[in-house]
Amino acid sequence: MxxxxxxxxxxxxxxxLASRILGSALLSKGYDVKVSEVHxxxxxxxxxVTYVKYGEKVYSPVVGEGEADxxxxxxxxxxxxxxxxxxxxxxxxxxTQKIDPMSVVIGDCQYPEGVLDAVRAAGATVVELDALxxxxxAGSPKATNVVLIGAMAKNTDIDKExxxxxxxxxxxxxxxxxxxxxxxxxxNQ
Amino acid sequence: xxKLLLGNEAVARxxxxxxxxxxxxxxxxxSTEVTECIAKYxxxxxxxAPNEKVACEVAFGAAVAGARSFCAMKHVGLNVAADxxxxxxxxxxxxxxxxxxxxxxxxxxxxxxxxxxxxxxxxKIMMLEPSDSDECLKFSKLAFELSERFDTPVLLRLTTRVSxxxxxxxxxxxxxxxxxxxxxxxxxxxxxxxxxxxKHVQVEKRILEQVAYCEAEAVEAGLNTVExxxxxxGVITSGICYEYAKEALGENASYLKLGCVYPxxxxxxxxxxxECETVYVLEELDDYLETHCRxxxxxxxxxAEFTLLGEYSQGLIRKVIxxxxxxxxxxxVQIPPRPPVLCAGCPHRGLFxxxxxxxxTVSGDIGCYTLGVAKPLGMMDTVLCMGGSxxxxxxxxxxxxxxxxxxxxVIGDSTFIHSGVTGLIDIAYNNSNSVTIILDNSITGMTGHxxxxxxxxxIKGEPAAAVSxxxxxxxxxxxxxxxxxxxxxKDCYDNISKALxxxxxxxxxxxxxxxxxxxxxxxxxxxxxxxxCKSCKMCMxxxxxxxxxxDGKAEIDFTQCLGCNVCSQLCKxxxxx
Lengths: 189, 577
Fold this sequence. Notes:
The complex is a heterodimer. By secondary structure, chain A is α/β, with parallel strands linked by helices. Chain A has a single domain, classed as Pyruvate-ferredoxin oxidoreductase, PFOR, domain III (Pyruvate-ferredoxin Oxidoreductase, domain 3, 3-Layer(aba) Sandwich). Chain A has helices at 15-28, 76-81, 102-105, 115-121, 131-138, 144-154, 160-170, 176-187; strands at residues 3-10, 32-36, 47-55, 68-73, 86-95, 125-129. Chain A has a six-stranded mixed β-sheet with strand order 2-3-1-4-5-6, sandwiched between helices. In chain A, helix 5 (131-138) packs across helix 6 (144-154) and helix 5 packs antiparallel against helix 8. Chain A starts with a strand and ends with a helix. Chain B has four domains: 2-215, 3-Layer(aba) Sandwich (Rossmann fold), CATH 3.40.50.970; 220-322, Rossmann fold (3-Layer(aba) Sandwich); 348-511, Rossmann fold, CATH 3.40.50; 521-577, 2-Layer Sandwich (Alpha-Beta Plaits). In chain B, strands 3-2-4-5-7-6-12 form a seven-stranded mixed β-sheet, sandwiched between helices. In chain B, strands 15-14-16-17-19-18 form a six-stranded parallel β-sheet, sandwiched between helices. Chain B has a four-stranded mixed β-sheet with strand order 9-11-10-13, with helices on both faces. In chain B, helix 2 links the parallel strand 2 and strand 3. The termini of chain B are far apart. At the A-B interface, helix 1, strand 2, helix 2, strand 5 and helix 3 of A face strand 8, helix 12, helix 15 and strand 20 of B.
């Protein structure tokens, strides 16, 4: 049975690297893997989504309505935005960080209250995590993505060693130590 | 060995393995990474060209000279390269020539949703379409073989989901057969009417030969494939739609997958349709395959049931063919939209704020700065195509000369070189009272930081000749050239005002490197002194994603702020430190 994971967030948060680490880990387990990314215009502070699918044989690289087993959300509002893609019995792992979209910054819209309560009320299982302070603890707010990968790793049946090897394979040498620390902090939450 | 490769990366690998020697491209999402990956192979001479037409001509010249060559572009880039494309179909090649064109159904990063398959048919050039990374690699190699066998350029069509998905691809070794001998042959390569008339006859003959290839040999080669399962539903498809169909229908349908979308087979399609009860044509964008099927007189379902707009998906196919609806969760909250914005520290922000103060009409162009259209800046009136801002402004000012002192064009450094300079020559030549603003951020930004002829570096990051924008503007006849720093709002305002008051052709170069460049040093993040902040929201008028209002006071996000100081110039209470 194939599984589908979505990584959603705000352009600039490092969702692409997270999807590469995930893809690399799944590949080590011998799965057929497809990872779909969006580049270009959507990078610039907009809502971004990456799809990761794995199993014996994967065809479509994208995840549609009601198809995701897991959503890893880098931001609360993005968890709610992409919720329609989650299976009714699916799980959301969410970074509790809030980032105001421009529509909120300029006062056209409100950042809604109780976003995660609404996600829970819709029927999703929600795992919350405040990843930004952990990333800062690891050495940089930029490591938030790897903290979240650590948190997700804990929720999978893939060995921790495989995850660590995947981080090593995807992160530049210069930032490896910081990212391994970020992974541990996320994993141990 | 199998590797997890991005579709574009797999194309690059295929070109490499096929012994490709020369690559020339202009970046454009979703095609850019093909050439970026090619640049990592030292065996291939790779370059960024000023535009797609130049890139295509460079690749053509190299192929005629005997090197397997290639160029890549996005769908609208093929419009620019259409001139060499159409006639290269007549001349044919010597060594193979592969032209990659990446369409963008759903317009993730494009200004239109044109379907490049029409170009293949119109130019009579063979077109292959892979559906995953493994096929990207295999079809790229095959494209070179077919190019040389049929003496024609070959188009390789990608779409966003194929270009930007990673899947497993079988990687092999490079085979380089060296440079093919070039022989002077004007009857083949000089397209004067007398020669072109002879060549056109050969082109039509070539297409018939290619159709014969598509019927049989292409099936053996795994390019066109027929897969019979349940024959209640038959699916004729190509590219990414094959993956969607397989996921949605599995073995409940039979498939005719066309890896070659031009030319198309006849017998293969008719035979398949005869075997299946109901045949659906699954293709994104136009009814290209469907029209061919109808021309053959076979009964198929297609666009009437599906759509000409955007992307297909497994969900859409399940819904239309199987009548299955998916259940989905919905959070009971109003979710504000989150479109892309100019980055924190983006040099374009100060420039657009200045244009807003000047209340001018803005003829816009293609690049990061197109985001100047978004609120709260909202400073863009038109955006058409690469380079269109400059010539469009001239036209606007011809129609309404009184408005010339309240109108500007904005265009990035790379886009200006691509095709803006010709518009500027028009302005100088016809003495148009037009003000062109070149937003020089020292990089091709939107496509992810590619070097260009103004940056002083080539595709490999080695030092290269740099176009001086000032000298170029002067050389074409612009006598009023101003250079401003967009982080300095007063400097911007004063000089653009002056340019607009001249009643003469003028250029303002707004110069400041992209804030995301690794070489750019930033100031420490700014902070709001909450005691001094009077909640006037002046700093909110520039639309910086790092600034928000928290508990009635402005707040700056330290993780985003790059200390550009544009906001602090707006604060009348010196609250931003």
